[in-house]
Amino acid sequence: MSDPAVSVGNVTTHLVEAKALTKHFGDFEAVRGIDVDVRRGEAFGFLGPNGAGKSSTMRMIACVSGRTGGALSVLGMDPDRDGPKIRARIGVVPQLDNLDTELTVRQNLQVYGRYFGLSRAHVREKATELLEFAQLVDRANDEVEPLSGGMKRRLTIARSLINDPELLLLDEPTTGLDPQARHLLWDRLFRLKQDGVTLIITTHYMDEAEQLCDRLVVMDGGRIAAEGSPKDLINRYSTREVLELRFQPGAQPPELGQFADRVEVLPDRVLLYTADGEAALKAVHARGINPLSSLVRRSSLEDVFLRLTGRTLVD
Fold this sequence. Notes:
Blueprint: E1 7-8, E2 11-12, E3 14-25, E4 28-39, E5 43-47, H1 54-61, E6 69-74, H2 79-87, E7 90-93, H3 105-114, H4 120-133, H5 149-160, E8 167-171, H6 179-194, E9 198-202, H7 206-212, E10 215-220, E11 223-228, H8 230-237, E12 241-246, E13 262-265, E14 270-274, H9 277-286, E15 293-298, H10 301-309
Helix pairs in contact: 3-4, 8-10
């Protein structure tokens, strides 16, 4: 964990700080003593398989679930003592949209804004601003139910901004969306970050984490397996390139360890982690090894994620 948060002109530089943070549900340890710091103005990511502890951590930060042990500070306050004050200054985008389908798009924003004690005039003005931000101006008076998944997701994010939060928590923000809707949401989130909103994101999409996150942690089994920027993690846990080779189905692949720093044999292909994929492929061919197909690609955050958390499916 980084140095303790400091205040500059009454502005806390670290919006979230956790030290030895734990969360138990009976005998089950969902979060096992993690250290986390989130700095003002950054996009911070939590990655991990199902059951890694991401959602439990996010719920503690959102002040809707108390911690079992350790220290936690959000916006310079203790969630156990100052939960209402913290919730008034953060925005939360849940994994599943929970919009009011009996209200129009605009009414969803205005009614939610009233929960924060904002005046009707302010809420009307803010709703108009957020409809523009979410590109929903032409659907403002429509009911929610007929909207596409991408539109509902944009409305959910817009609603979370009604109170001008300093910190925005997004749980799997683009799950289930088509590529066009995902990229539009990425653009909206990037704009929020440019405007100074601090983002905390959980995601299963490695490309999303690479696009959006300045720093991230990979969680597994309630603990932090690695922390850093996407680039740093790739440099630390993988190689510059990966050579993917496919052989005849059911055939035993040849010994390939001499051609790479690390070799991973999967049911459908063999991965060779190397600094130069083309050179490795040339060496493979020179030894008379001829795979059915080959692909040279740059190493990705997904390679890091799978190396740290394994390829076994977790339900």
